[in-house]
Amino acid sequence: MTITRRALTAGAAMLAALGVLRRDDIAAAERALLAALSDRDTAARIGRALAMDHRQLAVAILAGVNMSATAAAGADTKVIRAKLAQAIRQDYAAGLTIKRDGWLLTITEARLCALAAHNA
User: Fold this and answer.
1) What is the pLDDT of residues 28-63, one digit of tens each?
2) Is residue 95 left, alpha or beta, with left meaning phi > 0 and alpha meaning psi from -120 to 50?
3) Structural domain tally of the chain?
4) pLDDT (tens digit per residue) in 57-116
5) Chain-centre distance of CA 93, in angstroms?
6) Distance, CA of 49 to CA of 44 (rounded, Å)
7) Cα dist from 57 to 8, 10, 29, whole Å
8) Which of these, 47, 50, 76, 88, has the minimum number of CB atoms within 10 Å of its CB?
9) DSSP characters for the chain?
């Protein structure tokens, strides 16, 4: 199953509407998620092509790895990488992928790339 950018953005917006998150928690969670990327520059380049709202992205990524913003902000990078790897495997297994500019990405990877682009 391939997901359109519209569906991806709408899903992220819905996740954001489900809970009220403090801005400082989201900002700290964004830093923690980005620290888990091994090649942030490449991720940012891919993410610029996806162009999604970064706050919604962080909320959607956190929902995908079953972490709160507060938990992610205080988590070890290794823990976050393990949770992201698990979410990526689950995305592939479920067929949740996006094709963009020659890249085949899972929904989690696409969201991370877009988050990296925003914070580049």
Assistant:
1) 887 888 888 878 887 777 766 665 566 677 777 888
2) left
3) 1
4) 777 788 888 888 888 888 898 998 999 999 999 999 999 888 877 888 898 888 888 888
5) 17
6) 9
7) 9, 11, 11
8) 76
9) -B--HHHHHHHHHHHHHHS---HHHHHHHHHHHHHT-S-HHHHHHHHHHH---HHHHHHHHHHHTT--HHHHHHS-HHHHHHHHHHHHHHHHHHT-EEEETTEEEEHHHHHHHHHHHHT-
Tokens, residue 29: 């969670």
Q: Rounded distance, CA 60 to CA 64, Å?
A: 6
Tokens 């709160």 correspond to: 68
Contact criterion met (CB below 8 Å) for 29 and 69: yes
Would you say 43 and 117 are in contact if contact means Cβ atoms under 8 Å apart? Answer: yes
